[in-house]
Amino acid sequence: MKLIMAVVQDKDTNRLINVLGEENFQSTKLASTGGFLKEGNTTLMIGCEDGNVDKVLKIIKDNCSNREQMVAPISPMGGNVDSYIPNPVKVEVGGATVFVLPIESFYQF
Ligand code: 2BA
């Protein structure tokens, strides 16, 4: 068994959970925050059999989109300073960042 942890954008979450459900994959949705943008994203935990990992990865890939986001860089002083007006820079946020972990045991009590 494997645990798939997928960090996805909030906008893609509902569609992804629905498609996973239609294919009989259970998921748990966790509210998370990206360390770089400091904005909300969603982490899905999906437990599945080894033989289904590729199928789940394909569903994630098909339902998560790359998006460009503008981000204001922090000032050289490390915070917002009146005299420093930073130019926002474009950052491409990926469709999904996915970790596949081996599961030693799985219980439901
Ligand atoms: P954030 O950390 O908010 O990062 C959002 C996007 O900002 C990243 O998209 C990347 O394109 C860019 N970025 C991140 N760090 C950067 C840096 N030091 N300099 C310039 N640009 C930077 P993604 O790579 O698609 O990541 C989307 C979200 O996935 C991340 O949100 C984070 O929550 C998670 N993530 C990505 N890699 C991870 C990892 N190795 N471990 C844990 N979480 C990860």
Automatic annotation (TrEMBL):
Domain of life where this protein originates: Bacteria
Q: Which Pfam families does this chain map to?
A: CdAMP_rec
Listed PANTHER family? CYCLIC DI-AMP RECEPTOR A
Q: What is this protein called?
A: Nitrogen regulatory protein P-II
Q: Which organism is it from?
A: Oceanobacillus caeni
The organism's taxonomic lineage, starting at the top: Bacteria, Bacillati, Bacillota, Bacilli, Bacillales
